[in-house]
Amino acid sequence: MSTIDLGANLERAAAPSDASLVGYVSREEHGTNALSLLVAGAHCGACVARIERGLSQMDGVTSARLNLSTRRLEVKWRGPAAAADAIVRGVERLGYDAVPYLPETLTERDEAADKALMKALAVSFFATANVMMLSWAVWLGHGGGMGEGTRSFFHWLSAAIALPAIAYSGRHFYRSAWMVLRRGRTNMDVPISLGVLLTTIMSLVETALGGVYVYFDGALMLLTVLLLGRFLDHRARAKARSAVQQLMTLTALPVHVRREDGSMEAMPAGSVRPGDVVLVAAGERIGVDGIVLEGQSSVETALIDGESIPKPISAGDAVIAGAANIGQPISVLARATGGGTVLAEIIRLLEAAEQKKGRFVTIADKAVQVYTPVIHILAAATFFGWLAFGAGWQVALVNAVCVLIIACPCALGLAVPVTQVVAAGRLMKTGVLLKSATALERFAAIDTIVFDKTGTLTLGRLVLDASGIPQEALALASGMAARSTHPASVAIRQALPDQPSLDDVTEQPGEGLLWASAAGDVRLGSTRWCGLADEGSNGIAVWLTRPNHAPQRFALTDRLRSDAARTIAALKTKGYAIEMLSGDRGSVAEKVADATGIADWRAEVSPADKIARVEALRAQGRAVLMVGDGLNDAPALAAGTASIAPARAAEVSRRAADAVWQGEALAPLLAVLGVARKARTIVVQNIGFSFVYNAAWVPVAMAGLVTPWIAAIAMSASSMLVTFNAMRLGRLPKGPR
């Protein structure tokens, strides 16, 4: 493929300018640079395809992805970071404006765009109302003997009102159309601008010649309806992308750093360095991931993981960026900042899910690319067709204008992207983060769900059953356990957290703890470590042995997720087949299966066995959702039709999964399956409606049965309909009912 000249070679175009974008470039793995840009003027799938194709053909660019709803362009390339300036110039040469995608300016830009559209709409509406009154006088005068001079005066008066209004209010469309036309390309604003300007020019010519085909009222009505549709569409898309935008805004909040000399310094969260101490006042949001150094408080993390119940925190507890401090002031030792925080990773996952292209997106984009040039061909055919049948050029031009307006593929271009954005945002609010847009389609096809046990149906954290344990034995065990980070020790310590720790406790990895008391050695650990006979598979336990006392058993359980049984029951009700595969012992797995109501389960299953079972189910024609968290679950997660892992899963499992859910509840699983199925239905509805709309209205327009302003109403209504149809996803129930 030949490389188009969008700024020539990136190496040659990398010389820094006075306003270099190097500071906005992030360095990724394998020497790849990445830049996020906010693109103005892209309104349809054809615009997206043009920008992505044009940038991908630049030397060094490895990928370019534009999200139509969020307007965010993500470009990656190999070469110097200074080539970012060439990237932006490349976008501008394609006919679009591009600036760095900064969270602190998103709301400001949206408000500015809203104000500009409102001003244009107000001017257009005022002019339309006045010209319509003059037009009514002319229409009524046809039957009342209005003279030629009076009619001509009213036409010129209409022109005096209409021309300035059309010039001012239509700038949004004209500017966008001119930018692409001068590069030999087109977008949806081209037919809109042609329609408005051709109608206006024809009316001005007819007015000068004393003709009757004067449509200043129609041109203004057309422009007013188009501006109203663009304004409502802008508002609807802003609401659809609010999930990412809200999270992006959190990353731009200022934080207060305490310096070594005790002074305070306010700075953006991204400027904080690991090791800095950040002070968080009551009511503020935490700007970094870190550890609480001082203070006790509560944090609310609903925007991050969907958990509405505040969590108590104190010195030593981990906190994440974006969480709201709703109690007392605290100080936090920063561990991860900027792009390294959990919040930044959530944003990356959410945007990746919105920007990646699934099967339906590809279908819609290809249809738009084919359909856009067809619009102009149909309009030209309409014009010359009416001329061939003996109509005047004025009638032929009006009908061609109607085709240009009514056939814009706006609805088709929005059919899928807006649904993806709303679905990803809806799931984010329930704590589910999609990592792939294609996963949403695959989640919708699921009929069988395979669960791992530990860390999936259970929380993966041991809990001590302290009933029947003497207080003095529990106190001794808690004092010894304070010196260990083993999960069993942590569980025992949590049962009596205020017990003072014992000195001179040693730990034998994999065995247990030893404390040399005045009476002799005290051991806490496995039966072998304590010199006891193996108790077989009778649950999870550790033992305490000490001189002159009988051995004391400490029974531990891996607590089920609070809603596990309820969620499994709801999944069964919806028709899903449920299985559980566990590497644990049979007695332990059986207890969990009985507690959750899972009849089909297997214990002591190896990673290879899990893969074999998932592949066997798929060979039977099942669409399998694998739910797991451990390192040993990663291969099975990759083998499933789709997969999901809890946020606390092993890193390799999170990477292998198609989605990640936050929090301790299992209910988000219901949400992702329900939203996926509804999203598939809405996408099919939107694409179907787009094709039906064009199939129905284009012939009507070619037949001369609509006026320009009716065409504008139809076109704007089609775009708003697919957008509002997609936004129904935001009203789905959150959990099992």
TrEMBL record:
This is Putative copper-importing P-type ATPase A. GO terms for biological process: copper ion homeostasis. It is found in: Cell membrane. GO terms for molecular function: ATP binding; ATP hydrolysis activity; copper ion binding; P-type divalent copper transporter activity. SUPFAM superfamilies: Calcium ATPase, transduction domain A, Calcium ATPase, transmembrane domain M, HAD-like, HMA, heavy metal-associated domain. Residues 33-99 form the HMA domain. Its EC number is 3.6.3.54. PROSITE patterns: ATPASE_E1_E2, HMA_2. It is a multi-pass membrane protein. GO terms for cellular component: plasma membrane. InterPro entries: ATPase_P-typ_cyto_dom_N, ATPase_P-typ_P_site, ATPase_P-typ_TM_dom_sf, ATPase_P-typ_transduc_dom_A_sf, ATPase_P-type_domA, HAD-like_sf, HAD_sf, HMA_dom. The keyword Disulfide bond does not apply. The chain crosses the membrane at residues 120-141, 153-174, 186-205, 211-232, 368-389, 395-419, 683-703, 709-727. The keyword Transmembrane helix applies. Keywords: ATP-binding, Cell membrane, Hydrolase, Ion transport, Magnesium, Membrane, Metal-binding, Nucleotide-binding, Phosphoprotein, Translocase, Transmembrane, Transmembrane helix, Transport. Belongs to the cation transport ATPase (P-type) (TC 3.A.3) family. Type IB subfamily. It comes from Devosia equisanguinis.
